[in-house]
Design goal:
The chain has 5 helices and 12 strands. The structure holds glutamine.
């Protein structure tokens, strides 16, 4: 055995510190990823929540997007939360912002309305069970195709998807202490 797994957390902008802490509570090593070569040193990657337009532009600027796509095609597990899920999507409802386009989903940004910026809800996740979901200016998936599996809905809207080694959550599991989604992702790694 090669010892402890190392999970990279894309650390350009957004909630990467919280993801690192949650992953460390699960007993894995973490590494902040800001440069393409750091992608060679990890077993899986988390793309955190934040501002998807900013993260997308920075990924391009630092040449991370092409390497992440290459690693994804080679099979590296990737989990995107909120802005991260937007960046994984092939289609984004309102524009042509930079993205990885790895998952067969169409997302709508800030999709739960302006009045309700943030909220929490109890979700029942396929194969995982009851989970508290923290939503912050969250997207949802309007449409999925290919072999995408819908894992959770909130008020009929798709808020969690999996496509093979790619995982997307519209909510923020790094902001609760439950740890179950982090453990689920680590099983994929
Ligand atoms: N609304 C943000 C976006 O569109 C995502 C919000 C979040 O990641 N919490 O990028």
């Amino acid at each position: 055995m090669a010892g402890k797994k190392t999970i990279g957390v894309l650390a350009l902008q957004g909630a990467f510190i919280e993801h690192e802490a949650a992953l460390q509570r699960c007993g894995v090593q973490t590494r902040q990823v800001r440069r393409p070569q750091e992608l060679g040193e990890i077993d899986g990657l988390v793309i955190p929540g934040g501002e998807s337009t900013t993260i997308g532009k920075l990924m391009q600027k630092f040449g991370l997007d092409t390497v992440i796509k290459k690693k994804a095609i080679e099979g590296m597990p990737i989990w995107g939360t909120c802005a991260g899920m937007i960046l994984l999507a092939q289609e984004i409802d309102d524009g042509d912002q930079p993205r990885l386009g790895l998952m067969d989903i169409r997302v709508k940004r800030n999709a739960f309305g302006r009045q309700v910026d943030s909220f929490e809800a109890d979700l029942d996740i396929e194969g995982i069970g009851p989970t508290r979901g923290v939503f912050i200016r969250a997207p949802y998936a309007e449409r999925v195709w290919g072999n995408v599996q819908v894992m959770a809905r909130y008020q009929d809207k798709i808020v969690m998807v999996q496509q093979g080694h790619l995982l997307g959550t519209a909510f923020h599991p790094e902001l609760t202490n439950q740890g179950n989604i982090h453990r689920y992702f680590l099983e994929m790694v």
